[in-house]
Structure to design on (314 residues):
């Protein structure tokens, strides 16, 4: 009787292990199908070996997931030192492409093309007509959830599920580490992301809004009900009077540095009574971390939290 029970127990454990195998499997079974940013079902029949990416966020994900020998092209932004987190990794891939390079992309004979969610419909249609391979449209990266889903989708399409899981773990670990530090704040600071060359900010429904949330600060533009990437006025900045104002690190003006823009902002008579000016809290954060919409965005969470509450990070 005891032996019989033991055999039954072993059989049950084996059956349970078999049922759980798909949950813990790190291998991708091809063909694989995922939903892209247009809601289309994209099927890849076998592990792609000639991948081409046309967006910086997918450049950054792929270069941390896939061997460069399997990537034949990256976006033209991969080498941008102001915004790209993968300048050094990108050196291992020769090709550079934009969505304007229709004939060049077709001639490259890729077996998987990844295009940005904002691609022009006419260009997308031309690629669909000229390419025989799957075309995956990236998700709108306006939230951390979408960024994580993008990583999952790309890890499945490329057959690199384990590496995709590692990137998501990296994101979760970094966020959790910051959250532990800011968890018991009695009073959170208000932040304004201010892109001076466009007179714009980030409101709700943006990844930058979520950077603020996870960093333990309050996005003042979102409190005012703004969404997306709206333009703002001096009067609004004065009315909001944020604790911290974040200026982009990239100037894009050969005659002025970002630091000069900060000093110009602080010397503006209209802004002299702002809390951020009085407390020397008009700051520059690395665009590569704050503007990115790949897994590197969690570095922006860390950067902002540390700038807002330096005493928590000693």
């Amino acid at each position: 009787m005891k032996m019989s029970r033991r055999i039954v127990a072993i059989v049950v454990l084996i059956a349970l292990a078999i049922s759980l195998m798909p949950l813990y499997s790190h291998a991708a079974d091809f063909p694989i199908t995922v939903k892209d940013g247009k809601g289309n079902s994209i099927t890849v029949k076998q592990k792609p070996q000639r991948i081409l990416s046309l967006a910086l966020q997918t450049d950054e994900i792929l270069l941390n997931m896939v061997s460069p020998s399997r990537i034949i092209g990256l976006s033209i932004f991969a080498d941008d030192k102001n915004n790209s987190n993968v300048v050094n990794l990108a050196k291992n891939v020769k090709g550079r492409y934009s969505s304007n390079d229709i004939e060049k992309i077709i001639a490259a004979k890729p077996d998987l093309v990844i295009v940005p969610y904002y691609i022009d419909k006419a260009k997308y249609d031309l690629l669909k007509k000229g390419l025989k391979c799957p075309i995956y449209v990236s998700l709108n990266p306006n939230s951390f959830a979408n960024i994580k889903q993008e990583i999952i989708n790309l890890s499945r399409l490329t057959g690199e599920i384990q590496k995709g899981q590692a990137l998501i773990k990296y994101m979760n670990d970094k966020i959790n580490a910051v959250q532990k530090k800011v968890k018991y704040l009695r009073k959170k600071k208000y932040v304004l992301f201010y892109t001076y060359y466009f007179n714009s900010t980030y409101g709700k429904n943006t990844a930058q809004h979520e950077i603020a949330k996870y960093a333990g600060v309050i996005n003042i533009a979102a409190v005012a009900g703004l969404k997306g990437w709206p333009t703002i006025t001096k009067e609004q900045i004065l009315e909001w009077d944020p604790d911290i104002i974040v200026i982009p690190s990239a100037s894009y003006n050969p005659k002025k540095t970002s630091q000069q823009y900060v000093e110009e902002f602080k010397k503006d008579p209209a802004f002299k009574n702002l809390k951020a000016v009085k407390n020397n809290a008009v700051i520059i954060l690395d665009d590569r971390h704050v503007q990115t919409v790949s897994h590197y965005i969690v570095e922006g969470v860390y950067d902002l939290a540390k700038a807002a509450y330096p005493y928590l990070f000693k």
Remarks:
- DSSP finds 14 helices and eleven strands in the chain.
